[in-house]
Amino acid sequence: xxxxxxxxxxxxxxxxxxxxxxxxxxxxxxxxxxxxxxxxxxxxxxxxxxxxxxxxxxxxxxxxxxxxxxxxxxxxxxxxxxxxxxxxxxxxxxxxxxxxxxxxxxxxxxxxxxxxxxxxxxxxxxxxxxxxxxxxxxxxxxxxxxxxxxxxxxxxxxxxxxxxxxxxxxxxxxxxxxxxxxxxxxxxxxxxxxxxxxxxxxxxxxxxxxxxxxxxxxxxxxxxxxxxxxxxxxxxxxxxxxxxxxxxxxxxxxxxxxxxxxxxxxxxxxxxxxxxxxxxxxxxxxxxxxxxxxxxxxxxxxxxxxxxxxxxxxxxxxxxxxxxxxxxxxxxxxxxxxxxxxxxxxxxxxxxxxxxxxxxxxxxxxxxxxxxxxxxxxxxxxxxxxxxxxxxxxxxxxxxxxxxxxxxxxxxxxxxxxxxxxxxxxxxxxxxxxxxxxxxxxxxxxxxxxxxxxxxxxxxxxxxxxxxxxxxxxxxxxxxxxxxxxxxxxxxxxxxxxxxxxxxxxxxxxxxxxxxxxxxxxxxxxxxxxxxxxxxxxxxxxxxxxxxxxxxxxxxxxxxxxxxxxxxxxxxxxxxxxxxxxxxxxxxxxxxxxxxxxxxxxxxxxxxxxxxxxxxxxxxxxxxxxxxxxxxxxxxxxxxxxxx
Length: 644
Ligand SMILES: *Cc1c(COP(=O)(O)O)cnc(C)c1O
What we know:
Elements: E1 6-7, H1 14-17, H2 28-34, E2 44-45, E3 47-48, H3 55-63, H4 78-92, H5 99-102, E4 110-111, H6 120-137, H7 145-156, E5 160-161, E6 168-169, H8 171-177, H9 201-217, H10 242-245, H11 250-257, E7 269-270, H12 286-296, H13 311-320, E8 333-337, H14 338-350, E9 356-361, H15 366-373, E10 377-384, E11 390-391, H16 396-399, E12 404-410, H17 422-435, E13 439-442, H18 458-461, E14 467-472, E15 484-490, H19 495-498, H20 501-508, H21 517-520, H22 523-526, H23 532-554, E16 559-560, E17 570-575, H24 585-596, E18 598-599, E19 601-602, H25 603-607, E20 612-616, H26 621-643
Parallel strand pairs: 1-3, 2-4, 7-18, 9-10, 9-12, 12-13, 13-14
Antiparallel strand pairs: 5-6, 8-15, 10-11, 14-15, 16-17, 17-20, 19-20
Bound molecules: pyridoxal-5'-phosphate.
The site of pyridoxal-5'-phosphate has 15 residues, from helix 14.
């Protein structure tokens, strides 16, 4: 398999970071077809190109091109192309004159070096990624990256850096052209004081040194390069990946690691589990179960499905998430392993390591778990407990920077139980548009609202901002064990398409071939009229239990619900832990478990939200009744103890 080819004299190296395609305007289409395959870790990487040979032509090619277009500026010379193909053919025995056969040829990564300008920091990112790819695939680079870096270092000695964009260029070039070839800033070597155009090498070396020291401290650095060893010299050296060790689910960890045990004299009531099926009182729609048992007996139902998912199932989701203003096509739907799988896929497609994503606080902890795993920084924005948990929008501009990849919103909310109003959603979308960030909308509780509150999908309201909406049958249809979810792509302006995000999502879908294909086939039934009444009944039950929860808990001294639930299955309860002699919400929750065998999730460790705890009100009313009366006794008792 071959990978990517980059052409053009000054192909903007930024595109490498996204493993995407960048080709010369004229030749682009040709190469796109010839070398179209990016699924492999193996990368053929070529920078070729030819600067136009007179100043006029050079200037024109620069001036006609916006810096943001990220295109090559040079003309591809056919001889260059031919010699590259020749070289590839010789090294890797690609049949000549048969472009289609190239797809099957197995090739080691190879780097061709263009002695033009290179943005060094980006380049190093590429090298790092390439190192990882090399490690995984255990192949040797024909020109390995160490050699490449040596050549590159040698070549750029004495180069100068543009003060605006940090792009590096040889002084002769700058002198000749008078501007930066990356960002087109005017640069005048003679006029500019030395400190404007400064050689970056030493500074960078220092930085590199520091980085190296840091990573040396880690046991297994992701960047460490592999070395050839003789067979006899290999020794056992198995160690867990950093990625795995930085992947932590706070809820699971808290629950599994809780030091205290429930009171053995009282039956455990877990109001902690966000699983509507946990107590058996809420049920999967009957018709869906019938359809499932029928499908399971069919011989034809058990093969792989298309990696994007069964077509009929995708059409169902597409029409469900189409709105008056925008029709979704089935090709904009990808079926996933639950909402969790959908979130992972979306983050994976949007973010590189070192990017950051804005995430709600209080919020569903899986966002963080997935982002940590991908090496993406989590930046929290706050929800306001006294204004129906609306987003504190004024915080967002302070949180974004050039590496902000997405804004995550969750509506209706877990753990808050809130449902955003139409006007609040419009403000969120406006803000995202101002900041130019795509929205990842966790809409796993779509339509799960109580009377008086309406669910709007972000996609139906956003004309400009791209929305990746995720959801599943887990909560709506009480079937989290089915692991049946989806990503719906709303890209009305083609912004995701332009950045190859859709292609990336499609490629990611090919990793696992989930969800299980018989279950996919139930989606049309679930969203048909046959299941509507079951859904209504579910929501009536949940609403009734939500109101009962708020009524019962807000009467208890020390507890309050500043913004009662409007949907989903949760209620955030504020707790004055100190007034009862507890240090914080975590101690309150563990003591409640120890004395009353009622488990609620403390806000600080689970949702980054101190002085609250989350209650799931899915349990049958009688069970809720028992739990709340135990909580009441517990709170009363501890208020008294505190006083004495
Ligand atoms: C439950 C939940 C999920 C996970 O859904 P699955 O379909 O079980 O993966 C994702 N996001 C939120 C907000 C949830 O509450």
